[in-house]
Amino acid sequence: MSIRLSLNPVHCLQAAAVVGVLAGMTLPAHADNWRGWNVHPQGYPNSVALDSFVKEVTENTDGRIKAKIFHNGVLGDQPDAIEQTRSGALNFANFNMGPMGPIVPETDVLSLPFLFKDIDAMHKVMDGEIGQRFADALEKKNLVALSWFDSGARSVYNTKRPINEPEDMQGLKVRVMNNDLYVEMIDALGGNATPMAYGEVYQSLKTGVLDGAENNFPSYESSGHDEIAKYYSETEHLILPECLCIAKRSWDKLSDQDQEIVRQAAVDAATLQRKLWAEGSKKSREDVLAAGAKINEVDKPAFQAKMEPIYAAFVKKHPDLEPLLNDIRNAQ
Ligand code: BDP
Questions:
Q1: I need a labelling partner for 168 at 20 to 30 A (CA). Which of 30, 232, 311, 324 fits?
Q2: Which atom of ligand 1 is nearest to the CA of 197?
Q3: Distance, CA 273 to ligand 1 centroid (Å)?
Q4: Closest to 57 in 3D by CA, of 248, 250, 276
Q5: In order of start, what are the domains of the chain with their CATH numbers?
């Protein structure tokens, strides 16, 4: 077979020009442009830690990975971002284990109320062999968890009244994260749970669509919810870890050397985040108090008793997860 080339002089000149330009410049090595998701605003402990992760990854890979983090949830709400990271459309993110439950059932164990006795116990569990089991479960769903962040303890707050006893929750419309377990939890207390995206809560509190929500002090403050829902009652019903996760598709493309760099950057980010968290949550508590929040302690055993049936229902639904639950209890 013969191939006939028609040589158009204009095309030849254009091609020569392109080759000339390419030859004259030093082409950069192929760079992976990574986009990361974060729900929190700039300056929040997690955001500062993610900024440092981005810097360390970009510098230590000599620009082979160019990472950029988008704060403030501008790339979508958390359930969406989880899906996007699973598919590789986003490359990394800081996720809370609460909205992870519908995708990775093992992580629902972490959403059982009053599971960890305190934050140190949570760290001990997540930094050890049990944390690795969660990472393995996440990896099966295409998320590579490289380190665990803190998110303190979550408590209930509302616009109406201080909550001392579970009975005080009666009839309150309380926003929860996207997970059926939280609906069961608030309903068990006599409230009306409303799953809703984090970014919509402020407006809903303002217009009275919601009476309250639940979160830790830094989020209560940074979201501005403290300006509207003045009663913060220290139920401390959830101590949820968060991950710094990489899309498995992005992770698998890396050389061993770059995987090591990214892993180290994630571990360093978690060390920084935990330090900033410890300082930041104390400061947020003081700030919201100074701004007029009314903080009270609650009758915790009464809340624990009301939520106990959630455990039995959970084990009935997920008998396979009972050993994991027991191991977490025994490890504390
Ligand atoms: C914050 C978590 C964040 C959640 C948010 C929420 O850090 O990941 O999206 O709570 O309540 O504490 O949705």
A1: 311
A2: 13
A3: 15
A4: 250
A5: 32-150+241-283 (3.40.190.170), 153-239+294-331 (3.40.190.170)
